[in-house]
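note to self — DONT lose this again. spent like an hour looking for the file last time. sequence + predicted structure for the chain T wanted, 168 res
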Amino acid sequence: MEKQYKKKITWTIKNFSSLPSDKIYSDYFLVGDSKWRLLAFPKGNASGINKCLSMYLDVADSESLPDGWKRHTNFSITVVNQISEKLSAPQVSQNWFDQKSPNWGFPLMLPIAKLVDKNDGFLVNGNVKIVAEVGVLEVVGKSDVLVETLLLHESIDVNGFQVLHSQV
């Protein structure tokens, strides 16, 4: 069986109420050999659900992956209550990501009225805090770009000297 990887990341969305975009992405992060990012629709997703924050896990390099690629994951996304973490809103899923479905998530993550209510603790000083835990269970079709990036940072032995691939 292939080695499994798990990572926990935190994404703070600053100035949430004044975001100009209907769709925003987190920075990229690596879990095992896979490149991911979080996707948020602060006003709801494109399918007309506009009364809830929508949150998704997205395969960040899906456009550059080979035909037939797949990623099997278990993941959770939590909108953190910054006053009392016990009141946070976690959602959990296990899915296969592929070319037809490069992202999976929760269109009804948290009602916007609850999210922006000053007394509820999800929006503090204009910021919303999201925590995601991503476990990669299986990878089919690795990214050539990612493999090249990883190889550039590995050294090889040349006549007894350790040399980076980029220097050979």
